[in-house]
## 1
Amino acid sequence: MVLSVVRRVGRSLLVVLLVTMAVTLLLSLAPGSVAEVVLGPSSTPESVAAMESKLGLDQPLWAQYGDWLAGAVRGDLGESPVTGQPVATAIVERLPVTLELAALALVLALAVAVLLAVASAGRPGSPADRAINALSSVFLSVPAFIAGPVLIYFFAVKAGWFPVTGWARVSEQGLGANLRAAALPVVAIALTEVASFHRLLRTDLVGTLREDYVEAARAKGLGRGYVMVRHALRPSSFSLVTLAGLSLGRLIGGTVIVESLFGLPGLGQLMAASITQRDLVTVQGTVVFIAVVYVVVNMLVDLSYQLIDPRVRKAARA
């Protein structure tokens, strides 16, 4: 068990290392320099060269990456040359927004997907099942960058129920204003997740409902709803928990478009602005944080298997 955890941690660290190396290489291929952003349009080639020397950008790429990596190992993610703010501070300030969006979208997606899957798996092939599958296909074909503008137009501009852009902090404007500001971006993010969760859970439920122990429960006269929830839903959620864990990590790092579209001050907007400004230090720090969160979530998902599926617990004891 311990050896397995050590191997998993080692592989995870290697993944994080490779991701940061890829980000460094890709940003180095982009035109322009962060020195030009800092100095502004009035910069001269001499001033840009002097600024690059001050920031250490005149060194070879491998040397720049090595210096950053040495600081990151010690917990120092560096300081943004554009804003002068420590990267760790910028991440901490923007994390609550992204975390709230990801968590609310995941909870909403799971709740809707479970209801749809239970309704469709109970009578596979029925008109209700076909209608739900068609709705799921629609959700799956509408990415966030399309759903976002549509939701803004109908529910913010036309109806006026929600703000078009901006964020409301709970400590400043209250929970109600915060949820109103988060509602449209959360729905835009959750739509494709609903479709993925529903399809996976429906397939597993249909298979589980054909198992002998489920048939035995029905033969005892137990109600359809009781059999579905007590005997079928829990063992069928094994794959769903895995996908939900992967989705949480992906949502935390994948809100760039939604946060930019709705003007939300989260990690996605921070990364988008940093890429535009060629702020490699901030991009690297943000990528490392997201990668670590993704790895930790996956490890927690693996550990949760023993709580969900009795077969895993028996195998672990054996």
Note: DSSP finds 15 helices and no strands in the chain.
## 2
Amino acid sequence: MDWLSRLFEMMPVRGRLDLRCSYGAPWRIEQGPGEANEIPYHAVLAGAAMLEDPAGGRPLLLKVGDILLLPGNPRHVMHDGSGAVPRKARNRASLNFTISETPGAGERLDLLCGHFAIAPPHDRLLRSYLPPILVVNAGAHAGQRDAAGQLAGLVALMRGETADDQLGGRAMLNALSTAMFALVLRLASEAGGAPRGLLALAGHPRLAPAVAALFGAPARAWTLPELARLCNMSRATLARQFQEKLGRSPSDLLTDIRMTLAANQLRASSISTGAIGEAVGYQSEAAFQRAFKNHMGVTPAQWRRTQDPSGQDIFATPAPTKPAEAS
């Protein structure tokens, strides 16, 4: 199993389309922050939008084919860039999603808005490995067989599903949204100049053997020399490349993987703490207890007690639709 598939197996992600916007200028959208475990997304089908940088930097122009992810889950503002007083949006519910509309002249914005939900505590971990703002473009690649072409085809399917209410439409839109997350990360990792984090690490072919090893056999007591040999580089070079690309050491990544697996086991089973610690690579229960508390802030027993005893899937109950706030 490749490392990204392994990551999604460890940290389940579910997508959900919330609404489709059709706006004529002047318009303005204010959204967020969402629930703590959510990452919002926006896909530009037609027109253009200006995203105000939540961190206070220069506005970002979003164009046709752009897909925006906001892993930082901030309150964010998009507008047409005219500076004119925006028109009031009207939201109406369809069977499977919400449509938000404004009148107006000129080129209209056509935008899909949704979010990705990640099971806690993995949302915090995954967010720490992604940039606060991530944009990829698939607009010019429709019909191609690479990641951009696949993403363009997926967005085209979503556009078709939102053209009219169809039988099974909500299930289709949510499934396509979930697949969008994986394709966005795949495309971002293949693009030059990927932002620091897992995407930059994945896009560095010389480090791929070490990443695959850590995800594929996290219980093994990997050493820096072993990982360096897999990558055919020196220990110093491997350590430097991990720090530059990921912002963490190989041992930090290994601990994150182990703690994720342990948290899943504690939630889903009644296996003893010692057995879980051994399964994820710790030689003693005491060492596992220390590592888990340092990483999670609570002991394994405390973590297990806080989990839903029914084992209910946090994604099982559909969240209420969250229309954009447009004024």
Note: The first strand starts at residue 13 and ends at 25.
